[in-house]
Design a protein that fits this description.
The protein has about 240 residues and is an alpha/beta fold. The chain is built from eight helices and seven strands.
């Protein structure tokens, strides 16, 4: 069975502004979605996607254990995923070497790098066993423009490591029919970002739905020859 026929996707961070937009976008393309997020967010997530398509809400902290049980449930109730979008992550700022830096450094590695690693370790091998699949991981523009992350070195380092990990993994699993790509958005237009930057021109930012469309393309057969890419999605910023 081809990836297009399986149409089963895992979305992490699925209750967030981007994750929920991605889940909704994929359902419009006929995917059954395993929506993964922390337990407190599941009721919100279920309300958001109710009536939009086949969805399985999975309570899981992407930063910790539990992936083996989660994947067993996903495969049992939906099937082996042909697609995955890793939206789980976070931002943290602190002056390098300052009093808060160590704590922020550890948290950024955990929520960005370790969460992606654990998810990839759980999701990619079953795809390889099925002979195909596509994964998209959300990075950041600071990977290509690290100077824009001044004051947030830990965030820049963690996101850069995620993209490097994905590019290495893409080379490793390409012979097994699995593709791995990343997207590098600038500022995403979310309520949290609007609250944090109230004087910005929100129209220049990347809309979650727009980024969801780019991700859906990378997952699709139309992008079957694209793997290991780090695709800029900058909006007008």
């Amino acid at each position: 069975m081809s990836d297009e026929q399986r149409r089963i996707a895992v979305v992490t961070g699925a209750a967030g502004a981007l994750g929920s937009a991605v889940a909704a976008e994929l359902m419009t393309h006929g995917y059954s979605v395993a929506a993964v997020d922390l337990s407190p967010h599941l009721s919100k997530l279920q309300d958001q996607v109710q009536g939009q398509g086949a969805t399985l809400a999975v309570a899981l902290d992407p930063r910790g254990g539990g992936w083996a049980e989660a994947m067993a449930r996903i495969q049992r109730e939906l099937g082996t995923p042909s697609a995955a979008v890793l939206c789980a992550g976070g931002w943290g700022g602190a002056a390098f070497g300052g009093a808060e830096h160590q704590g922020v450094w550890e948290r950024m590695l955990l929520v960005n790098l370790d969460s992606a690693r654990r998810a990839l370790e759980a999701i990619v091998p079953p795809m390889c066993d099925e002979g195909g699949g596509s994964v998209v991981v959300v990075g950041s523009r600071v990977v290509e423009r690290p100077w824009e992350g001044a004051g947030a070195a830990a965030y820049v380092a963690s996101k850069s490591a995620v993209v490097a990990l994905c590019q290495v993994l893409a080379a490793e699993v390409r012979p097994r029919g699995v593709r791995v790509n990343t997207v590098l958005p600038s500022v995403i237009d979310t309520p949290q970002n609007r609250a944090g930057m109230p004087n910005a021109d929100f129209s220049e930012w990347v809309a979650p739905r727009s980024l969801g469309g780019v991700i859906a393309f990378l997952l699709s057969d139309a992008a079957r020859d694209v793997s290991g890419a780090a695709l800029p999605v900058y909006g007008r910023v």
